[in-house]
Amino acid sequence: MSPKGVTLHRRPTSAIIDRSALRHNYLEIKKRTTPGTKVMAVVKANAYGHGDVQVARVFESMGCEFFGVAIPEEGARLRQAGIKAPVVVLGGIFPEQAPELFDLDLTPVIYDMETARLVNGLAVKMGVRKKMHLKVDTGMGRLGIKPGEVAPFLREFRSLKGLELEGVLSHLAEADSLKREFSETQLELFNETLRTVREDCGFEPALVHMANSAAVVDLADSRFNLVRPGIMLYGSYPSERFRGKIDLKPAMQIKTRILYLKSVAAGSPVSYGRTFVAGRPSRIATLPIGYADGLPRRLSGSGEVLVKGKRVPIVGLVCMDLTMCDVTDVEGV
Fold first, then answer.
1. Residues with catalytic annotation?
2. What is the pLDDT of residues 217-244, one digit of tens each?
3. Which domains are present in the chain?
4. Cβ partners under 8 Å of residue 319, min gap 6
5. What does DSSP say about strands 66-69 and 38-42: parallel, antiparallel, or unpaired?
Protein backbone atom coordinates (compact mmCIF):
# COMPACT_ATOMS: atom_id res chain seq x y z
CA MET A 1 0.00 0.00 0.00
CA SER A 2 1.34 3.44 -0.92
CA PRO A 3 1.93 6.01 1.84
CA LYS A 4 -0.91 8.48 2.00
CA GLY A 5 -0.65 11.11 -0.70
CA VAL A 6 2.22 9.34 -2.51
CA THR A 7 1.85 7.94 -6.01
CA LEU A 8 4.22 5.02 -6.56
CA HIS A 9 5.44 4.15 -10.06
CA ARG A 10 6.55 0.57 -10.01
CA ARG A 11 9.63 -0.63 -11.84
CA PRO A 12 8.71 -1.84 -15.35
CA THR A 13 9.38 -5.53 -14.73
CA SER A 14 6.34 -7.77 -15.22
CA ALA A 15 5.29 -11.35 -15.80
CA ILE A 16 2.63 -11.29 -18.50
CA ILE A 17 0.34 -14.33 -18.66
CA ASP A 18 -1.40 -15.23 -21.91
CA ARG A 19 -4.81 -16.74 -21.12
CA SER A 20 -5.26 -17.83 -24.74
CA ALA A 21 -2.07 -19.90 -24.45
CA LEU A 22 -3.40 -21.55 -21.27
CA ARG A 23 -6.63 -22.43 -23.06
CA HIS A 24 -4.71 -23.76 -26.08
CA ASN A 25 -2.50 -26.01 -23.93
CA TYR A 26 -5.49 -27.33 -21.98
CA LEU A 27 -7.26 -28.30 -25.22
CA GLU A 28 -4.10 -29.94 -26.58
CA ILE A 29 -4.00 -32.12 -23.47
CA LYS A 30 -7.71 -32.92 -23.70
CA LYS A 31 -7.17 -34.13 -27.28
CA ARG A 32 -4.93 -36.87 -25.92
CA THR A 33 -7.48 -38.29 -23.52
CA THR A 34 -10.38 -40.56 -24.29
CA PRO A 35 -13.99 -39.39 -23.87
CA GLY A 36 -14.94 -39.44 -20.22
CA THR A 37 -11.40 -38.98 -18.94
CA LYS A 38 -11.27 -36.10 -16.49
CA VAL A 39 -8.50 -33.56 -16.02
CA MET A 40 -6.95 -32.49 -12.73
CA ALA A 41 -5.05 -29.28 -13.50
CA VAL A 42 -2.07 -29.06 -11.16
CA VAL A 43 -1.88 -25.48 -9.89
CA LYS A 44 0.53 -25.93 -7.01
CA ALA A 45 3.32 -23.40 -6.34
CA ASN A 46 1.10 -20.52 -7.47
CA ALA A 47 0.34 -22.40 -10.71
CA TYR A 48 4.04 -22.80 -11.44
CA GLY A 49 4.42 -19.06 -10.90
CA HIS A 50 1.60 -18.09 -13.27
CA GLY A 51 -0.96 -17.04 -10.65
CA ASP A 52 -3.04 -19.87 -9.18
CA VAL A 53 -6.34 -18.03 -8.86
CA GLN A 54 -6.29 -16.52 -12.34
CA VAL A 55 -5.13 -19.79 -13.92
CA ALA A 56 -7.75 -21.85 -12.08
CA ARG A 57 -10.47 -19.49 -13.26
CA VAL A 58 -9.37 -19.99 -16.88
CA PHE A 59 -9.39 -23.78 -16.59
CA GLU A 60 -12.62 -23.94 -14.57
CA SER A 61 -14.33 -21.89 -17.28
CA MET A 62 -13.24 -24.56 -19.77
CA GLY A 63 -14.80 -27.36 -17.75
CA CYS A 64 -11.76 -28.57 -15.81
CA GLU A 65 -13.16 -31.04 -13.28
CA PHE A 66 -10.42 -31.06 -10.59
CA PHE A 67 -7.54 -29.00 -9.30
CA GLY A 68 -4.42 -30.37 -7.66
CA VAL A 69 -2.47 -28.46 -5.01
CA ALA A 70 0.47 -29.42 -2.85
CA ILE A 71 -0.68 -28.05 0.51
CA PRO A 72 -3.93 -26.92 2.14
CA GLU A 73 -2.86 -23.26 2.06
CA GLU A 74 -2.96 -23.39 -1.73
CA GLY A 75 -6.42 -24.91 -1.62
CA ALA A 76 -7.54 -22.11 0.70
CA ARG A 77 -6.52 -19.50 -1.90
CA LEU A 78 -8.65 -21.19 -4.54
CA ARG A 79 -11.66 -21.46 -2.28
CA GLN A 80 -11.36 -17.86 -1.11
CA ALA A 81 -11.34 -16.82 -4.78
CA GLY A 82 -14.57 -18.71 -5.44
CA ILE A 83 -13.24 -21.81 -7.22
CA LYS A 84 -15.97 -24.47 -6.91
CA ALA A 85 -14.38 -27.56 -8.50
CA PRO A 86 -12.96 -30.29 -6.24
CA VAL A 87 -9.49 -29.46 -4.95
CA VAL A 88 -7.19 -32.38 -4.11
CA VAL A 89 -4.29 -31.87 -1.68
CA LEU A 90 -1.65 -34.03 -3.33
CA GLY A 91 1.09 -33.50 -0.76
CA GLY A 92 -0.78 -34.75 2.30
CA ILE A 93 -1.48 -32.93 5.55
CA PHE A 94 -0.13 -32.47 9.05
CA PRO A 95 -2.52 -33.40 11.89
CA GLU A 96 -3.30 -29.81 12.82
CA GLN A 97 -4.44 -29.14 9.24
CA ALA A 98 -7.14 -31.82 9.25
CA PRO A 99 -10.01 -29.46 10.22
CA GLU A 100 -9.18 -27.30 7.18
CA LEU A 101 -10.17 -30.17 4.90
CA PHE A 102 -13.73 -29.73 6.14
CA ASP A 103 -13.76 -25.96 6.50
CA LEU A 104 -12.49 -25.49 2.92
CA ASP A 105 -13.99 -28.60 1.30
CA LEU A 106 -10.61 -30.04 0.28
CA THR A 107 -10.01 -33.67 -0.69
CA PRO A 108 -6.97 -35.20 1.03
CA VAL A 109 -4.49 -37.66 -0.42
CA ILE A 110 -3.82 -40.11 2.41
CA TYR A 111 -1.02 -42.68 2.67
CA ASP A 112 -0.97 -43.66 6.33
CA MET A 113 -3.55 -45.07 8.70
CA GLU A 114 -2.87 -42.52 11.45
CA THR A 115 -4.03 -39.68 9.20
CA ALA A 116 -6.97 -41.75 7.98
CA ARG A 117 -8.15 -42.31 11.55
CA LEU A 118 -7.76 -38.62 12.38
CA VAL A 119 -9.79 -37.43 9.38
CA ASN A 120 -12.35 -40.14 9.99
CA GLY A 121 -12.83 -39.02 13.60
CA LEU A 122 -13.57 -35.48 12.51
CA ALA A 123 -15.95 -36.67 9.79
CA VAL A 124 -17.88 -38.89 12.19
CA LYS A 125 -18.11 -36.05 14.72
CA MET A 126 -19.53 -33.78 11.99
CA GLY A 127 -21.88 -36.45 10.65
CA VAL A 128 -20.38 -36.41 7.15
CA ARG A 129 -18.33 -38.67 4.87
CA LYS A 130 -15.07 -37.20 3.62
CA LYS A 131 -13.83 -38.29 0.22
CA MET A 132 -10.14 -39.17 0.10
CA HIS A 133 -7.60 -40.59 -2.34
CA LEU A 134 -5.16 -43.35 -1.45
CA LYS A 135 -1.60 -42.90 -2.75
CA VAL A 136 0.48 -45.93 -3.66
CA ASP A 137 4.25 -45.72 -4.05
CA THR A 138 5.11 -47.76 -7.14
CA GLY A 139 8.66 -46.45 -7.46
CA MET A 140 8.82 -42.71 -6.90
CA GLY A 141 10.07 -43.34 -3.38
CA ARG A 142 8.49 -40.20 -2.02
CA LEU A 143 4.92 -40.36 -0.68
CA GLY A 144 2.57 -43.33 -0.72
CA ILE A 145 2.11 -46.71 0.90
CA LYS A 146 3.84 -49.72 -0.61
CA PRO A 147 1.72 -52.01 -2.80
CA GLY A 148 2.04 -54.82 -0.28
CA GLU A 149 0.54 -52.59 2.42
CA VAL A 150 -2.62 -51.78 0.48
CA ALA A 151 -4.67 -54.82 1.51
CA PRO A 152 -3.98 -54.44 5.27
CA PHE A 153 -4.67 -50.71 4.99
CA LEU A 154 -8.02 -51.25 3.28
CA ARG A 155 -9.07 -53.96 5.74
CA GLU A 156 -8.87 -51.42 8.55
CA PHE A 157 -10.14 -48.62 6.30
CA ARG A 158 -13.43 -50.51 5.89
CA SER A 159 -14.24 -49.80 9.54
CA LEU A 160 -13.77 -46.03 9.10
CA LYS A 161 -17.34 -44.99 8.38
CA GLY A 162 -16.53 -41.33 7.96
CA LEU A 163 -14.30 -41.85 4.92
CA GLU A 164 -15.04 -42.67 1.29
CA LEU A 165 -12.33 -44.05 -1.00
CA GLU A 166 -12.96 -41.84 -4.02
CA GLY A 167 -9.61 -42.33 -5.73
CA VAL A 168 -6.42 -44.35 -5.97
CA LEU A 169 -3.28 -42.80 -7.44
CA SER A 170 0.41 -43.20 -8.00
CA HIS A 171 3.15 -41.04 -9.49
CA LEU A 172 5.59 -41.80 -12.30
CA ALA A 173 9.27 -41.16 -11.59
CA GLU A 174 10.69 -40.85 -15.12
CA ALA A 175 7.89 -40.61 -17.65
CA ASP A 176 9.85 -37.92 -19.47
CA SER A 177 12.74 -40.31 -20.13
CA LEU A 178 13.42 -42.05 -23.43
CA LYS A 179 13.72 -45.27 -21.45
CA ARG A 180 10.26 -46.65 -20.78
CA GLU A 181 11.15 -49.74 -18.77
CA PHE A 182 10.82 -48.23 -15.31
CA SER A 183 7.58 -46.42 -16.15
CA GLU A 184 6.13 -49.66 -17.52
CA THR A 185 7.24 -51.48 -14.37
CA GLN A 186 5.51 -48.85 -12.26
CA LEU A 187 2.37 -49.13 -14.38
CA GLU A 188 2.33 -52.92 -14.06
CA LEU A 189 2.73 -52.66 -10.29
CA PHE A 190 -0.06 -50.09 -10.11
CA ASN A 191 -2.39 -52.32 -12.12
CA GLU A 192 -1.64 -55.23 -9.79
CA THR A 193 -2.45 -52.94 -6.85
CA LEU A 194 -5.73 -51.93 -8.46
CA ARG A 195 -6.67 -55.61 -8.79
CA THR A 196 -6.00 -55.97 -5.06
CA VAL A 197 -8.18 -52.93 -4.33
CA ARG A 198 -11.05 -54.19 -6.47
CA GLU A 199 -10.97 -57.97 -6.36
CA ASP A 200 -9.37 -58.76 -3.03
CA CYS A 201 -10.65 -55.84 -0.97
CA GLY A 202 -13.97 -55.14 -2.71
CA PHE A 203 -13.50 -51.41 -3.32
CA GLU A 204 -14.36 -49.69 -6.59
CA PRO A 205 -12.78 -46.22 -6.56
CA ALA A 206 -14.48 -43.76 -8.88
CA LEU A 207 -11.18 -42.19 -9.87
CA VAL A 208 -7.86 -43.77 -10.82
CA HIS A 209 -4.98 -41.52 -11.76
CA MET A 210 -1.29 -41.82 -12.51
CA ALA A 211 -0.47 -39.85 -15.68
CA ASN A 212 1.51 -36.64 -15.32
CA SER A 213 2.24 -34.30 -18.24
CA ALA A 214 4.75 -36.60 -19.94
CA ALA A 215 2.56 -39.68 -19.54
CA VAL A 216 -0.46 -37.92 -21.03
CA VAL A 217 1.52 -37.79 -24.28
CA ASP A 218 3.68 -40.89 -24.08
CA LEU A 219 2.13 -43.57 -21.86
CA ALA A 220 -1.49 -44.06 -22.88
CA ASP A 221 -2.17 -46.96 -20.52
CA SER A 222 -1.41 -44.76 -17.51
CA ARG A 223 -4.21 -42.28 -18.24
CA PHE A 224 -7.02 -44.31 -16.64
CA ASN A 225 -10.03 -41.99 -16.07
CA LEU A 226 -8.20 -38.94 -14.65
CA VAL A 227 -4.95 -37.27 -15.72
CA ARG A 228 -2.81 -34.78 -13.76
CA PRO A 229 -1.01 -32.43 -16.16
CA GLY A 230 1.16 -29.73 -14.68
CA ILE A 231 4.06 -28.22 -16.57
CA MET A 232 2.51 -28.68 -20.02
CA LEU A 233 -0.48 -26.55 -19.09
CA TYR A 234 1.90 -23.62 -18.91
CA GLY A 235 3.56 -24.28 -22.25
CA SER A 236 6.74 -26.07 -21.16
CA TYR A 237 7.76 -29.51 -22.37
CA PRO A 238 8.64 -32.22 -19.83
CA SER A 239 11.83 -32.74 -21.84
CA GLU A 240 13.13 -31.76 -25.26
CA ARG A 241 12.02 -35.01 -26.87
CA PHE A 242 8.38 -33.94 -26.50
CA ARG A 243 8.73 -31.06 -28.93
CA GLY A 244 6.80 -32.08 -32.03
CA LYS A 245 4.67 -34.57 -30.08
CA ILE A 246 2.33 -31.93 -28.73
CA ASP A 247 1.82 -28.30 -29.71
CA LEU A 248 2.29 -26.09 -26.66
CA LYS A 249 2.39 -22.31 -26.33
CA PRO A 250 4.39 -20.64 -23.54
CA ALA A 251 1.93 -18.86 -21.30
CA MET A 252 4.38 -16.44 -19.67
CA GLN A 253 6.55 -13.61 -20.92
CA ILE A 254 8.85 -11.62 -18.65
CA LYS A 255 9.24 -8.03 -19.81
CA THR A 256 11.31 -5.17 -18.49
CA ARG A 257 13.15 -2.03 -19.60
CA ILE A 258 16.81 -1.15 -19.58
CA LEU A 259 17.72 0.66 -16.37
CA TYR A 260 21.26 1.68 -17.32
CA LEU A 261 23.42 1.52 -20.44
CA LYS A 262 27.21 1.60 -20.19
CA SER A 263 30.11 1.48 -22.65
CA VAL A 264 33.02 -0.60 -21.37
CA ALA A 265 36.52 -1.16 -22.72
CA ALA A 266 37.94 -4.51 -23.74
CA GLY A 267 39.18 -6.29 -20.62
CA SER A 268 36.50 -4.81 -18.35
CA PRO A 269 34.85 -7.26 -15.89
CA VAL A 270 31.10 -7.37 -15.29
CA SER A 271 29.31 -8.47 -12.08
CA TYR A 272 30.36 -10.56 -9.10
CA GLY A 273 33.38 -12.78 -9.38
CA ARG A 274 34.43 -11.20 -12.68
CA THR A 275 33.18 -14.32 -14.46
CA PHE A 276 32.68 -12.22 -17.60
CA VAL A 277 35.39 -10.00 -19.07
CA ALA A 278 34.62 -8.03 -22.23
CA GLY A 279 36.67 -9.27 -25.15
CA ARG A 280 36.03 -6.08 -27.12
CA PRO A 281 34.67 -2.59 -26.52
CA SER A 282 31.07 -3.37 -25.50
CA ARG A 283 27.74 -1.83 -24.60
CA ILE A 284 26.35 -3.42 -21.43
CA ALA A 285 22.69 -2.98 -20.50
CA THR A 286 21.64 -3.43 -16.88
CA LEU A 287 18.09 -4.72 -16.37
CA PRO A 288 16.00 -4.27 -13.20
CA ILE A 289 15.38 -7.99 -12.65
CA GLY A 290 17.31 -10.69 -10.81
CA TYR A 291 17.13 -13.99 -9.01
CA ALA A 292 14.89 -12.52 -6.30
CA ASP A 293 12.30 -12.17 -9.07
CA GLY A 294 12.70 -15.79 -10.11
CA LEU A 295 15.24 -15.28 -12.91
CA PRO A 296 17.42 -18.38 -12.38
CA ARG A 297 21.00 -17.59 -11.43
CA ARG A 298 22.08 -20.57 -13.51
CA LEU A 299 21.36 -18.41 -16.58
CA SER A 300 24.47 -16.41 -15.70
CA GLY A 301 26.69 -16.43 -18.76
CA SER A 302 24.39 -18.78 -20.66
CA GLY A 303 20.90 -17.24 -20.85
CA GLU A 304 19.62 -14.80 -23.43
CA VAL A 305 17.36 -11.75 -23.54
CA LEU A 306 15.38 -10.34 -26.44
CA VAL A 307 16.27 -6.69 -27.04
CA LYS A 308 14.48 -5.02 -29.96
CA GLY A 309 13.65 -8.53 -31.17
CA LYS A 310 17.26 -9.72 -31.22
CA ARG A 311 18.77 -12.32 -28.90
CA VAL A 312 21.59 -11.00 -26.74
CA PRO A 313 23.61 -12.86 -24.09
CA ILE A 314 23.33 -12.45 -20.35
CA VAL A 315 26.83 -11.61 -19.16
CA GLY A 316 28.28 -12.01 -15.69
CA LEU A 317 26.46 -13.41 -12.68
CA VAL A 318 22.74 -12.69 -12.33
CA CYS A 319 22.39 -10.54 -9.19
CA MET A 320 19.55 -10.43 -6.68
CA ASP A 321 17.68 -7.64 -8.48
CA LEU A 322 19.89 -6.74 -11.47
CA THR A 323 21.01 -8.59 -14.59
CA MET A 324 23.42 -7.49 -17.30
CA CYS A 325 23.35 -8.26 -21.01
CA ASP A 326 25.59 -7.38 -23.95
CA VAL A 327 23.75 -5.21 -26.49
CA THR A 328 26.79 -4.23 -28.56
CA ASP A 329 25.36 -5.73 -31.75
CA VAL A 330 21.89 -4.23 -31.47
CA GLU A 331 21.27 -0.94 -33.21
CA GLY A 332 19.39 1.87 -31.51
CA VAL A 333 19.36 0.58 -27.94
1. 44, 272
2. 999 999 999 999 999 999 999 999 999 9
3. 17-249 (3.20.20.10), 256-326 (2.40.37.10)
4. 271, 272, 290, 291
5. parallel
